[in-house]
Inverse folding.
């Protein structure tokens, strides 16, 4: 049946093999919403971008509601409460991609996003961006080749956003980008927040403030989560001993790593390794 503005439909795909890789597609699709269709209030455990193809709708985040229409893009950060709702008379059609990984935040910051800047009105590369999101959906599949192809298209979509971003971003985003860059390059060593702040050229208190403002988490939380995501990947994809994984991801010793892991995931690294992959 031909899809048009008067017929509601939803084409969606959920990746059943989420990984803690540098970048992973979690879900993707396209939907023509019925009038007043609403998702939320709720939170996502990953980044989620919607591009509005036609129609109108509303996005509520950070206690503010925005009216959006064709050509606009809105982003959800993990853990941030959101609601989005279709217009009553002119409901929107949108395409989307959900994703996560260590490359996600640096790319989004470079594109001009932050926890407080989650919308791009009249996206200049809109038609190209929509085309690439469509290609992500067309590449869907459960085997490794499909996963690689979806990830490649996602990198292309993010590259379009970075290219179309204003030349001069917020100074705060620049500091956060430098901090993330340092973390990604030195996470395996015993780095401190002070060292990260020195690299960015601002004080520890300033770094804490701008990092929290831009990402919703502190530098220490980001460093810990980054290390843990890599550790989870190693636990699931290698046979390395827990002590070796702890040392490889920057933890002082295997005992400290195991305690920190249990605090976050509610189980030991060994139990996590033996558990089935999350569907």
């Amino acid at each position: 049946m031909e899809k048009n503005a008067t017929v509601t439909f939803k084409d969606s795909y959920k990746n059943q093999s989420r990984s803690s890789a540098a970048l992973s597609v979690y879900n993707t699709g396209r939907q023509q919403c019925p009038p007043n269709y609403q998702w939320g209030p709720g939170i996502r455990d990953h980044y989620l971008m919607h591009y509005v193809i036609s129609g109108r709708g509303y996005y509520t985040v950070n206690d503010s509601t925005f009216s959006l229409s064709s050509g606009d893009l809105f982003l959800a950060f993990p853990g941030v409460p959101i609601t989005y709702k279709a217009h009553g008379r002119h409901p929107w059609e949108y395409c989307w991609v959900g994703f996560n990984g260590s490359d996600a935040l640096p790319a989004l910051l470079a594109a001009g996003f932050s926890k407080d800047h989650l919308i791009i009105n009249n996206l200049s590369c809109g038609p190209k961006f929509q085309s690439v999101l469509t290609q992500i959906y067309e590449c869907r599949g459960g085997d490794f080749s499909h996963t690689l192809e979806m990830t490649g298209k996602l990198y292309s979509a993010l590259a379009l956003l970075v290219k179309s971003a204003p030349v001069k971003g917020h100074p705060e985003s620049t500091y956060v980008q430098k901090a993330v860059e340092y973390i990604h390059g030195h996470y395996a060593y015993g780095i401190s927040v002070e060292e990260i702040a020195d690299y960015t050229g601002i004080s520890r208190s300033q770094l804490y403030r701008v990092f929290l403002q831009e990402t919703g988490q502190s530098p220490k939380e980001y460093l810990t989560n980054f290390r843990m995501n890599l550790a989870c990947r190693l636990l699931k994809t290698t046979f390395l001993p827990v002590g070796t994984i702890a040392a490889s991801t920057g933890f002082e010793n295997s005992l400290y790593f195991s305690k920190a892991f249990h605090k976050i995931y509610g189980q030991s690294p060994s139990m996590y390794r033996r558990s089935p992959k999350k569907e």
In short: The chain has two domains: 9-164, 171-274. The first strand starts at residue 9 and ends at 14. The radius of gyration is 20 Å. The domain at 9-164 is CATH 2.60.120.280 (Jelly Rolls).
